[in-house]
Specification:
The complex is a heterodimer of chains A (183) and B (404). Chain A is an alpha/beta fold. Chain A has 2 domains: 121 residues, Rossmann fold; 53 residues. Chain A is 59% helix and 14% strand. In chain A, strand 3, helix 3 and strand 4 form a beta-alpha-beta unit. Chain B has 404 residues and is of the alpha/beta class. Chain B is built from 12 helices and 12 strands. Chain B has a 5-stranded parallel β-sheet, sandwiched between helices. Chain B has a 5-stranded mixed β-sheet with strand order 7-9-10-12-11, with helices on one face. In chain B, helix 1 links the parallel strand 1 and strand 2. Chain B is elongated, with a radius of gyration of 36 Å. Classes of the chains: A alpha/beta (183), B alpha/beta (404). At the A-B interface, helix 1 and helix 5 of A face helix 5 of B.
Chain lengths: 183, 404
């Protein structure tokens, strides 16, 4: 499998960063950060698809970091990994829509890989959807103009009417979908 | 109340016995001191009425012997005699008699003197009972203090150990994966070795040497096993930590209603393999529709631990009884095995975390400790009756859900 996705791991414990780099290096471009601040700096420099952070860190907690990532880099898929005792804070974060998943420490290596692959796939799916929406916008505008310009002369009347109506419906749906995805 | 009457004169004895029976005492008669002593040894009496002068062992000797025994509970001893001097009374009381009656005794006096004895015995019994309860309460207090401090220690430890466990487990997984690749590369080098002609001789010599000492064969065979055994060990540590967290109540999940019959049946199903391996006969009497409000995963864990203990304690072919019933406002789960049981020493430590009698590697010593804590948290009780070589009964009482 070629490495097409970039993952950023954030943990204040160097052993954890080292260990996870070993696990993930084959499937992903791995970046590491020892604090929330460092993580944000890396995200400004590099395109990161998935960010996975420890919850308990000095100065900035994982959920605080995720809140900022959500604002600055809404495309990145966000994961927190945490000890059981932090579950409450993490569940709150999930409920606020800031997280894709959370993983408990100690994690199962195979499960973790699986979750990250899913996250990368989700990133692709979301990116594709965003592209689709963007392209579709232009396409629908064209279709609208085409409909207006051609008139019933090129097409039989019922077909032309249906084309115009469908184009109109799709443009409205597109409008709604475009506003909903980045609320 | 039982009374022992020792009197060698048949007439006096019969008279005494009939009077005593009239006053609702349960009477055992003895014709002399010897016989009385034998009766007393068989079963102690709280009230003894004895003549002084008797052939063979006299009343004083009988009293002396009774005082020397350390039977449970007090015996109130009344000496009957024709002697009426003050010195006689002193002598008798010095020997250990509680009271002294001069013959021939007036029935009314005998009645009140006996009643006095009975009153003192009852006071003594009440005191003993209170003492026993006090000791029990104290033991329970010590136990709960001990468990609470251990719980705190466990909580701190579990948290600290969690992180290293996490990355060591991960490292092992990485090592295992990458080692497989390394071994494959080594193999390729070995296969390529005959075709490498231009390499410096010291390098090819080294490769030849390695091929000869058979080291790479050993590595190929054993490295995967080393890895596997290390990750198994780590899994065990991880389970212990997770049990400790439960014991210390670190992770709280919402409560829910749980049907105990279903819970027990599904747990028995999970343990089916272990039960069949020992060919145990499960005799279950489970009342239906007994629901409790609880953390279902925790209660499942308790049922599992208790059943597993019973299975492990049982010998092949033994019966194992599992009951579920409703009593007052409580659900009662009872698991009774006829296995090895526990001696009093083991019983005194069975709720301690990490105390186990199972062979190394089979028990963590946390099953009963965690169960105890979980049941306590659900405002229930967990009792264990056990007798060495006879078996063990575990009784769990849990408050019923309000809508039951």
């Amino acid at each position: 499998m070629s490495k097409t996705h970039s993952v950023l791991i954030v943990d204040d414990e160097p052993d954890v960063l080292f260990s996870l780099t070993g696990l993930l290096r084959r499937d992903f471009n791995v970046h590491t950060a020892a604090s929330g601040k460092e993580a944000l700096a890396i995200m400004r420099e590099h395109s990161i698809n998935v960010i996975m952070t420890d919850q308990r860190m000095p100065s900035m907690t994982g959920s605080e970091l995720m809140e900022m990532v959500r604002n600055d880099h809404p495309d990145a898929i966000r994961i927190i990994f945490t000890g059981y005792a932090d579950t409450r804070a993490v569940v709150d974060a999930i409920n606020r829509g800031e997280l894709y998943r959370y993983i408990t420490k100690p994690w199962d290596p195979d499960d973790l890989l699986e979750v990250l692959r899913d996250a990368a796939a989700r990133y692709d799916a979301l990116a594709a959807r965003a592209d689709l929406l963007k392209l579709l916008g232009g396409y629908l505008d064209d279709a609208h103009q085409l409909g207006e310009r051609c008139g019933p002369s090129t097409l039989p009347e019922p077909q032309w009417q249906r084309f115009r109506e469908q184009t109109q419906t799709l443009r409205e749906l597109h409008q709604q979908a475009s506003t909903a995805i980045y609320d | 109340m039982r009374v022992l009457v020792a009197e060698d004169s048949k007439v006096t004895r019969c008279l005494l016995v009939s009077q005593l029976r009239e006053w609702d005492y349960t009477v055992v008669e003895a014709r002399d001191g010897e016989e009385a002593w034998k009766q007393f040894q068989e079963q102690a009496f709280s009230l003894v009425l004895t003549d002084w002068i008797m052939p063979g062992m006299d009343g004083l000797e009988l009293i002396r012997r009774i005082r020397e025994t350390d039977s449970e509970g007090y015996s109130y001893l009344i000496l009957l005699t024709a002697k009426s001097e003050k010195e006689d009374l002193v002598k008798a009381m010095d020997c250990g008699a509680d009271d002294f009656l001069v013959k021939p005794c007036d029935p009314e006096e005998l009645r009140v003197r006996l009643r006095e004895g009975k009153r003192i015995i009852q006071l003594e019994q009440k005191l003993a009972e209170q003492n026993r309860r006090l000791r029990e309460t104290q033991a329970a207090l010590v136990e709960s203090e001990k468990l609470a401090s251990l719980g705190q220690l466990a909580a701190g430890m579990a948290h600290e150990i969690n992180n290293p466990i996490a990355f060591v487990t991960n490292n092992l997984a990485v090592l295992r994966r990458d080692l497989g690749d390394m071994l494959k590369r080594m193999e390729t080098y070995e296969r390529a070795r005959p075709y490498i002609r231009d390499a410096p001789t010291e390098l090819t010599d080294q490769l030849d040497q390695w091929a000869e000492d058979g080291e790479s064969d050993w590595l190929r065979q054993h490295l995967p096993q080393l890895m596997q055994s290390s990750s198994d060990g780590l899994t065990r540590v991880r389970d212990i930590i997770s049990n400790l967290r439960d014991f210390a109540r670190l992770d709280r999940a919402p409560d829910d209603s749980l049907d105990l019959q279903t819970a027990i049946e599904s747990t028995l199903l999970v343990l089916k393999h272990a039960i069949e391996e020992k060919n145990l006969h499960i005799d279950s009497a489970l009342d239906s529709q007994i629901a409790i409000h609880c953390r279902p995963d925790k209660i499942h864990q308790v049922i599992y631990s208790v059943l597993l203990n019973a299975i492990q304690a049982s010998d092949s072919g033994d019966p194992l009884r599992v009951c579920l019933s409703k009593k007052d406002s409580e659900a009662v789960i009872e698991v009774r095995d006829q296995g090895c049981g526990m001696d009093p020493q083991t019983q005194s430590r069975m709720f301690e975390p990490f105390f186990t009698t199972k062979p190394v590697g089979t028990g963590t010593g946390l099953g009963l400790a965690v169960s105890y804590a979980v049941v306590r948290d659900h405002k229930g009780t967990l009792e264990v009756d056990s007798e060495l070589d006879r078996g063990t009964t575990v009784r769990i009482r849990l408050p019923l859900a309000p809508d039951n």
